[in-house]
Amino acid sequence: MDPAPPESFQTGRRNEREERSPVRGRAMDLKKRRKILEKKKTIHDLIKKASSIVDPLSPFDSFRRYQSNDLSVYLESCRGDRLSSSVKQYIQKLLKTNMEGFYGSDWRIQAKVKRKEMSSVDAHYIFVLELRYSKSYETSARRTCMERCNQIAGFVHYRFTVEEEVPVLYVYEIQLESRVQGKGLGDYLMQLIERIASKNRMSAIVLTVLTSNALAMSFYMSKLGYRISSISPSEANLPTLSVKYEILCKTFDSEAKSVLENDEEPTND
C-alpha cells in the first residue's frame, strides 16, 4: 500500500478543489442563464410569428360557416389596427349592451379601457356575420361584404401573449347578439379558438370572467372544462378588487399545467 501523501500535499489538493468550485459554479450559472434566455427567445418568436398572421382562420376553412336550425353565419378575421370606424362603433355598442349591467358604476372606466384595447395591433378578431345570401357573399370581396352585405352578430377578440413565461392565447372578449345566443355558437367559437391556439403552438388558453356573470362561469367551467387559474385574484391572495373576476385557463401541456392551473379539483356548483 502506498504511504499517505504528506499533509501539505493533501491541503494543496483541497485548496485547489475549493478554488475551482466557484469557477464551476459560475459556469453552471451561465449555462442556466443561457438556457433561460433561449427559452424566452423561443417563446418570443412563437408569439411574434402567431401575431403576424394576417388570417388565423385560413387553416380552418371548414369552420368559417356555422349553421344550426334557423341560424346561418360566416366567420371572418380582422386585426385591431384595421377596424373601420363603423365596426369600432358596433363593438363599443355591443360591449355596452352585454356588459354594462355586470360592471355597474365601473362601466365608464371599463369602457375606456376596452376602447383602447380594441384598436391594438396585437388584437385579433373573429367576426360573426349573419348571411343574407351565401353564393354572392362567397364570390365577392370579403372586406366590403363584412360591412355591406351581411349583418355583424358578434365577435371574439383574442391575442397571443405570455403569462408566467408560458405562451398563451388570451381571449379578451366573446360577445354575441342576443338573437344568436343559445344556439351553440359560443361553444363552436371556443372550439375554433382551441384549434387556433394549438395550430400556433400556444400552451394554454386564458380568459377573464366576472364572477357576477354566473352563466359565463358555468359555460366555461362546467361545459368547456376550464379551471380557475393559479394566477387568478382568488388564488393569488390579491387585495379585494372593486370588480371581482376570475382568470380561467385550459392548458395543453404539463409545463403550462404546473404553472397556470390550481392543484385543487374544480367545483361545478
TrEMBL record:
A single Pfam family, by name?
Acetyltransf_1
Keyword annotations of the record = Acyltransferase, Cytoplasm, Nucleus, Transferase
Give me the segments passing through the membrane: none
**How would you classify this enzyme at the top EC level?**
transferase
Example of a GO cellular component annotation carried by this entry: nucleus
Which reactions appear under catalytic activity for this entry? N-terminal L-seryl-[histone H2A] + acetyl-CoA = N-terminal N(alpha)-acetyl-L-seryl-[histone H2A] + CoA + H(+); N-terminal L-seryl-[histone H4] + acetyl-CoA = N-terminal N(alpha)-acetyl-L-seryl-[histone H4] + CoA + H(+)
One annotated GO molecular function is: histone H2A acetyltransferase activity
Q: Ranges for the N-acetyltransferase domain? A: 111-250
**Extent of Basic and acidic residues compositional bias:** 13-29
- Return the similarity comment: Belongs to the acetyltransferase family. NAA40 subfamily.
Protein's name in the database: N-alpha-acetyltransferase 40
**Species, as recorded:** Capsella rubella
